[in-house]
Amino acid sequence: MTDFVFIDSGLGGIPYMTALLEKSPDYSCVYVGDTANFPYGEKNHEQVTSCVVALVERIRKKFAPRVIVVACNTISVNALDVLRQTFPDTNFVGTVPAIKLAARMSKKRRIGLLATKATCENPYNLELKRKFADDCVLVTRDDSRLISFIEHNAFTASHDDCLNAVRPAVDFFRDSGCDVIILGCTHFLNLSDVFAQACGDDIALADSVDGVVRHALEVRRADGGSLPHGTDGGEKIPPSLYLTGLSDAAWKSQYEAVCARFGLRPMGIL
Q1: Exposed, middle or buried, 126 (CB in 10 Å: 0-12/13-18/19+)?
Q2: Residues labelled as active-site residues
Q3: 51 vs 113: CA distance, rounded Å
Q4: How confident is the model at residue 225 (pLDDT cuts 50, 70, 90)?
Q5: Quick check: 69 and 96 in contact, CB under 8 A?
Q6: CA distances from 259 to 31, 87, 196 (A)
Q7: DSSP run (H or E) holding 95
Q8: How many CB atoms are located within 10 Å of the residue 203 CB?
């Protein structure tokens, strides 16, 4: 049995797992990137749902997770309800764009949402805006090219290459008058320091990491049962990384770089 399994369409959601382990290092954690079906952000609702339901079925059989953290905005806004209905005996924690936080931060009342196409177009964002940012203008930008760069290149690219990759998006929101950018795809969190440099002092960044981690820990503790499974005979078990496919050598290099950067056990293909 595993305390937490984190899922995403690729390598983007790992910062959620590392943030949780910084708060509670004794929990056992596994990360599964559905790289065989990357990118989810260009798929329609039915395709996203089909992919993630099949993935969760495999995860439940192999890991028996106490909590599955959906570390992907696209999966969460499209398929979280379906996952809870399909697997009612599994605890799910979702990730949604930090519109509420961005509204609290914005002085100009113009906030930007940088995300996948599927997330930007999902009606759920309009409901979040209505509830928490009704007096704000929400400017959206779907950026599949940047997401692909982060998935395939960012972990082995130079800092300047990463900075050049994020600047078009930041400039777009600056030109639109936004003073807060929501990092609405978990991939962007891997370049949060680069985004901050590109934004400078006039644009702030908002993400959902703290809220998701806090909620995930609450759900796991409420689930009760045994103590954290992060130890085995007194020896700490490091967090593990699984993928569902690797299409080329460049992606394999990314996988190896990610494991080295975050201290993950490379477990190969699930």
Answers
A1: exposed
A2: 72, 185
A3: 25
A4: low
A5: no
A6: 11, 30, 24
A7: none
A8: 18
Angle between helix axes 14-23 and 249-262 (nearest 10 degrees) is 10
Residue 228 to residue 223: CA distance in whole angstroms = 11
Mean pLDDT in residue range 8-12? 90
72, 40 Cβ separation under 8 angstroms: yes
Specify burial of residue 199 (Cβ count, 10 A radius: 0-12, 13-18, 19+): buried
Entry pTM: 0.91
pLDDT at 238: 83
Element (H, E) at 4: strand 2-8
Q: What is the CA radius of gyration of the chain?
A: 18
What are residue 140's DSSP bridge partners?
113
Tell me what pLDDT residue 193 has. 96
On whether the CB atoms of residues 147 and 118 are closer than 8 A, the answer is no
At 252, phi and psi to the nearest 5?
Answer: -60, -40
Number of residues assigned to the chain:
270
